[in-house]
Amino acid sequence: MALKKVMIVGASALQVPIIQKAKELGYEVGVVDFNPNAVGIKYADWFHNVSTIDANGVCKATEEFEASGITTVATDMPMRAIAYTCDKLGLIGISEETALNATDKARMIKKFEEFNVPHSRYSVVENKKIEEIKENIIYPCICKPVDNSGSRGVIIANNDSELHSGIEYSYENSRSGTVIVEELLIGREISVEAFAVNGSFYVIQITDKITTGAPHFVEMGHSQPSEAIATMYQEIYDITAKAMLAVGIQNGPAHVEMMLTESGPKLIEIGARLGGDFITTDLVPLSTGIDILAATIRLACGDKVDIEPKFNRASAIRYMKTGIGKIKSITGLEEASEINGVYRVSMQKNIGDMAEEICDSIDRVGYVIAQGESIEEASSICEKALKKIAVKVE
Ligand SMILES: Nc1ncnc2c1ncn2[C@@H]1O[C@H](COP(=O)(O)OP(=O)(O)O)[C@@H](O)[C@H]1O
Ligand SMILES: [Mg+2]
Fold first, then answer.
1. Section 298-316 average pLDDT
2. Residue 131 has pLDDT above 90, yes or no
């Protein structure tokens, strides 16, 4: 019997784990990428050179490859091309409307409003027309492009002048020119990895987050399982399911970010996709034994999925903090990886690269992932490993 075929959208380092997973599951794997030298191509069976956001191109390639399903990991905008392809070819996935709801923060928050999902006060600013929203603003607030990710274009504003420059900064990082200004939610930030099968919602794991905080709120660490599970599981489950319903996720993964405020959980954003930052490729399998990548691939191809937890452990990732300048030397990587419980140590920048101030997720230099029996253990293993690593800059 011929192998079942799956199309993975994107072949960058971020997608290598899902390409490899699909191969391991026995699928024949096609990939599309704008970059003909993308690192993931060599792991796939078939490649077509087209941009991952070219909906028509991605759809045609998928049809030509005769894929039974199409999916990806850790990337937002290609979800629109995937949804278009699912609609056109009758494959299992999200609708185009859901893809828009989950990749445009203005549409998203309007859906939250409509479905009574708790969220922040907000104003939408089109083409920097700031005067129209001024009276609705309470400081501090946060400016964000409606259609970017990885904290690109995200900045706090504490007063009128910061609001002006903040909107400018978000505008420069937006595709459509639309910016959303939100009330700054105060509390503990978590994300929820969830999964829908035929309209039923499952929480796979809850993650505690560490960010750089103001001004840019870049994610610098994730730990699982969240400490909030003990006291707030039901509330978190309910708001997650409501948010998935609001944007229309019926089948497949969701990555839901929320703030646990004094007046309960409030939504920050939802992605109709697998979470990035190694949360779904590594942290979820390490803390639960659930192979969420496998489930995503199999569901997309109409095959049976297994999302039952296999064990209750803990996992954590911590990104490195370094000085600013050109990286001169990196030492201690081997020593760090030899520590008991360390799962991976990896650099995203190397000698000769610039270590910049961390303004978005691309600026991060490297990371450590660990597994432990408790969240305290996994986090402290990461910290111990980070202490061994010295990144010198000049
Ligand atoms: N309304 C808000 N209140 C407080 N913090 C926020 C708010 N919106 C965003 N943030 C912070 O900024 C980060 C990035 O914002 P997010 O909406 O998730 O954009 P992105 O798509 O870039 O991830 C969040 O993880 C969170 O730490
Ligand atoms: Mg986010």
1. 97
2. no
State whether 178 and 271 are in the same domain: no
Q: Based on the structure, what is the number of domains in the chain? A: 4
109 in a structural domain: no
- Between the CA of 109 and the centroid of ligand 1 the distance, in Å, is 13
Q: Indicate whether 113 belongs to any domain.
A: no
Q: Residue 236 sits in which domain range?
A: 100-104+186-312
Residues 307 and 366 reside in one and the same domain: no
Among 108, 210, 217, say which to mutate for ligand 1: greatest number of ligand atoms within 8 Å of CB.
217
Closest atom, ligand 1, to C-alpha of 122: 1
Is 360 inside a domain boundary?
A: yes
Residue 114 within a domain: no
* Stretch 56-65: mean pLDDT: 98
Ligand nearest to the Cα of 211, by number: 1
* Number of Cβ atoms within 10 Å of the Cβ of 273: 26
Q: Report the atom number in ligand 1 closest to the C-alpha of 105.
A: 17
pLDDT confidence band for 1 (50 / 70 / 90) = low
pLDDT, mean of residues 3-11: 96
State whether 323 and 228 are in the same domain. Answer: no
Ligand whose nearest atom lies closest to the CA of 154: 1
Greater confidence, 319 or 136? 319
Task: Return the residue whose CA atom lies nearest to atom 13 of ligand 1.
Answer: 217
Q: Tell me how far CA of residue 349 lies from CA of 145, 235, 325, 372, in angstroms.
A: 26, 39, 12, 27
How far is CA 276 from each of CA 90, 255, 280, 317, rounded to the nearest angstrom? 27, 9, 7, 12
Cα separation of 138 and 182, whole Å? 9
Q: Higher confidence at residue 320 or residue 1?
A: 320
Cis ω before 215 (30° cut-off from 0) = yes
Ligand 1: residues within 6 Å at CB?
120, 142, 144, 148-152, 154, 182-185, 189, 211, 217, 257, 259, 268-269
**Token pair for residue 376?**
């305290």
